[in-house]
Amino acid sequence: MSKRILVIGAGFAGMWSALASARLLDQVGRTDVEIALVAPKPELHVRPRLYEQNPNGMKAPLQDIFQAVGVRFIQGKVEHIDVANQAVSVAGVGADTPRQLISYDRLVLAAGSRLFRPQIPGLDQHAFNVDQVADAAELEAHIHGLADRRESAGRNTVVIAGAGFTGIETAAEMPARLREVLGEDAAVSVIMVERNAAIGPDLGEGPRPVITQALTELGVTWKLGAGVAAVDAKGVTLENGERIEAETVIWTAGARASELTAQIPAERDNLGRLHVDRNLKVKGVEAVFATGDCAYAATDDEGNFAAMSCQHAMNLGRSAGHNVAADLVGAAPIPYSQPKYVTCLDLGPWGAVYTEGWNRQVKMTGGVAKALKTRINTEWIYPPSANREEALALADPRFIVVA
């Protein structure tokens, strides 16, 4: 009787999990194990690029790759995971995709994360975001529509709620995007709002002088020490009572692991990520592995844990895919290890800043760093070609992507 490895999610971690499982099964000559991947569509959404223009173009097809390596794609959305009976309930996403109950022998939860939306009055109704392709496309359409509105300070003002990685990259793009729509001579205002006392609170002191220099030269300003208390159609009210008139508010403040992690009876961190061992098996749960943004995974022996990032998701996926297949067929696992950590923060027309290490030592800035960021965004994070040998070779968990 054949066995089944089921991967939930077609993001960076899910895609690489499926390819890595196929790689190991190919190596050991096992043809009695099916690899199935369930997702709404057979495409990778290039989420790290959604702060850029043309978000609808930030998709990469996966069906040809899956067919080349022997991964079965199942179209649908997972609603329930039954760990006790090792089955997953999948709802259809259209008339041609009926509800299914899919059994598994091993499960990889790679369902990613979603933008955290606290209960702030007016947030859901009036704030935009760049979390998913449809969200970013809605924002882009709104920005293009500003030119049809009556000129006012509020029309020409964008508030970015959150001054973390995504908030900074989004803010750095906004002055140029606004002037493209409103005119080069338009008096535009881009204001970042951050509850913490510094820009990029999670990025540390290392790159902060570069970030503040770039944002200042781009014309971006910021307000620190008070978060957003309420949002309406005309602007935001801060926790300190200050009012900012703005017809465009973009929420970027943090992410949480997929709600599916709550269906796994195991320990989770404060972001909802499942605690996993070094092979990415969920602690205390048989036959279930977690990866990408769903996994709270140690990257090294120094006390560092993977961030919710494309950089970590790709390698977490490779490791989870190899180890879930190894666990099923009795092959040797390759413990997840990713001691090298880098960041490359896009700073719009100004350039970028590239750092190395968890203490984020600045190594490159400006145009040189921007060239690296462009390669990362347009080449390195995209799927491999549909060439079977190439795809399987790149799925080796020892092939470390550092950017």
Automatic annotation (TrEMBL):
Its EC number is 1.6.-.-. It is an enzyme of class 1 (oxidoreductase). It holds the Pfam family Pyr_redox_2. InterPro entries: FAD/NAD-bd_sf, FAD/NAD-binding_dom, NDH-2. Keywords: FAD, Flavoprotein, NAD, Oxidoreductase, Signal. Residues 4-314 form the FAD/NAD(P)-binding domain. One of its GO terms (molecular function) is NADH dehydrogenase activity. Gene3D superfamilies: 3.50.50.100. Belongs to the NADH dehydrogenase family. This is Enzyme. It comes from Cupriavidus neocaledonicus.
